[in-house]
Design goal:
heterotrimer, A mainly alpha (221), B mainly alpha (48), C mainly alpha (223), B: 48 residues, mainly alpha, 2 helices, C: mainly alpha, 9 helices, 0% strand
Chain lengths: 221, 48, 223
Amino acid sequence: MAIKIFKYSSIVLVTAVIFLSFLIPIPHIPALGDKARVLYYHVPMSWISVVAFFMSMVYAVKYLRTRDPQYDVKQYSAAELGFVFCILATATGSLWAKFNWGAFWNWDPRQTSIFILLLIYGAYFVLRASLDNYEQKARLSSVYAILAFVTVPFFVFIMPRVVDTLHPDPIVNSRGKIDMDPKMLYIFLTSLVGFTFLFLYMFQLKVKTEILNLKLKNSSN
Amino acid sequence: MNSLYAFLETNDLYVVLIITLIIWIGIVLYLNRIEKKLNDLEKKGIKE
Amino acid sequence: MKLYFQNTFEIFRKELKSEFRTKYVLNSLLMFVLISVSIIRFAAGDEKVDNEILTGLLWVTIFFASVSSLARTFIKEQDKDTSVALKLTTVIDSVFTGKLLFNLILSFITSFITLFLFAVIMNYEIKNLSGFIFFFILGITGLVIILTIIASIISKANNKGTLYPVLAFPVLIPLLVSIIHSTKLTAEGAETFSLYEEVIIILCYIVVVLTASLMLFKFIWED
């Protein structure tokens, strides 16, 4: 049931966002211009890749507590989807950077942090691929997911101290206020919700498939 | 390639369009992958 | 609790003993460091290498030297099938802390030798020596904690050698970035006190990582 709600509401919301993002005029922002519309697409991508990473950690903890294979499937699926959205965030971000900063990649703190997220996801899959025993695979990758999650917040504190960023302010900026045109804000929030639902729909689809896979494997043995 | 770059540099909106397309293609490719996996499972399930 | 410390100490002593019987890890670490420093020296030729770059190279050398040999303490148990015996006779967490202590000692020896070689061969100048050593010790401690817990994970996996840096690096980036930053500044003569925020961040990192490792180790060491 929930899967259908996510499916149809995400279809409606994302379609609406695609229309509105191109049609609604936005106030002029110096140095950004129309490129500011990227916000509707790029930010949800990075948001989802972080959410997926968090979900993966939560399911890892649950797996270690209960040893229920279902949680391992969820953990793995969240990580895989997170990886996909992380790649999308990197690709869209660097294309935007090419036209705004003049280079696809210039080691801006935010680019570096998405790069680290990519590395973590990559390392996680390499670890899973190199373990044969299913139970071991689930257990050790859960441990790694938790360990990696614990260290990521430090990055947020450290990077700005070492290099300056050119990245536009995050949505809620350092003064804790939301400085955005209200029209843009509404479209942005719609987009955020729409893409999150899309992510949840894809996540449930993936989990269903993997659980089916698991059941078939068990019945054939 | 250079003319494309020059075109995109002056027409910001098309950059956004390309980015939307990238996301769209990425999501479709991923859903396609899940579907392929489901099809394989279906076949395997029928065999047994 | 008393048994835990006792076991930790015993495992530490066992590691030391088996290491000093062959001196395998220590020797290979020292050779690795010596080779790296000479390669850097040859590459530099007659030119004076910038101090800033030398700080980076110092950490590159230490990172790869540690990655090349710190995993051995756990892989050894797996290869020789002694892990079952360890599991039967000791408190679980003490295996981790014992091996961590051993790796710490080993890394301190080799990294100070690396630092010495850099100073002698590459003319690496450190203006604020006490501050530099302080950050150096903090950095090595954090590095070794992560490398030890990752070593216990990869000892179960197939392609151990390549997997080690792949798994360790993403987790280590926050530490490496801040430690390279602060050692570079202290080498240029910055006051230790002016970098107190870095000290706090690095200390927090070490505490968090150590706690997480202690909590997670029993899940790794299960089978």
